[in-house]
Every structure is written in C-alpha cells, then in structure tokens.
Design brief:
single chain; mainly alpha; 4 helices
C-alpha cells in the first residue's frame, strides 16, 4: 500500500474508533426536545421579525440607497438566533442558545486594521 493510502487508513481508523465520542442518550434527547419548545416559539417570532425587516429594508434601500444600522442589527439578531437554535434543535451542540452573543453585537462593525497598516511607535 502506498504511504498516502496508509495515512488515510490511519485517519479513518481514528475517526471511526474514537472512544471519546459522545453519544446522546434517548432520555436526555427527549428532555432536550421538551426544552426546545420555548426555542421554537421564539424562533418563530424572530423569523417573522426577519421577514418584516427584510421587506422594510428593501423599501428603505430603494428610497435612501443605504441600510440603516438599526434595521441591520435586527436582521443580524434574528438570523444569528435562528442559526444557534438550529444547532441546538439538530443536536449539534448541547449549549442552550443565547439570544445574543459577542458576534451579534459586533456584526457589521469594522475590525482592527491589518498589522501592516498599523502605525509603528518610534
């Protein structure tokens, strides 16, 4: 067997025989679906907010030519909560989805300048 193929076989064995792999138990998963009921309700409301915001954003952009920061923040909040709640509902994470996090607060803001553009102290 060539060395490349043996390297892939080694990785494949590690993936399929990982003893630390976490398996969800039936009772715990069922309880998570009960905890997900409020998430589904809030998610429905945020999706309505996102749809109304998208239609409103279209009209505002059509008239003014730019998207106001407040409308952008509402749409980012609704979209990011939908992504976090999907991860919880599809059992991708065990973390109960927060309504807002540090990425939501800083969405759309310019980041720090690249290292080559920063002023060097003399």
């Amino acid at each position: 067997m060539p060395p490349v193929a043996s390297a892939f076989a080694s990785i494949e064995r590690q993936i399929y025989s990982n003893p630390r792999r976490h398996r969800h138990r039936g009772l715990k998963t069922s309880f998570r679906y009960i905890l997900a009921i409020p998430i589904v309700i809030v998610r429905y409301a945020t999706n309505l907010l996102l749809e109304i915001g998208a239609i409103g954003a279209w009209f505002v952009i059509l008239i003014t030519g730019k998207l106001p920061r407040g409308l952008f923040d509402v749409m980012v909040l609704a979209n990011s909560y939908t992504a976090r709640s999907d991860a919880y509902l599809f059992l991708l994470t065990e973390t109960y989805p927060p309504f807002q996090d540090e990425h939501t607060r800083s969405a759309g803001l310019p980041g720090p300048p690249p290292a080559e553009q920063r002023a060097t102290p003399e």
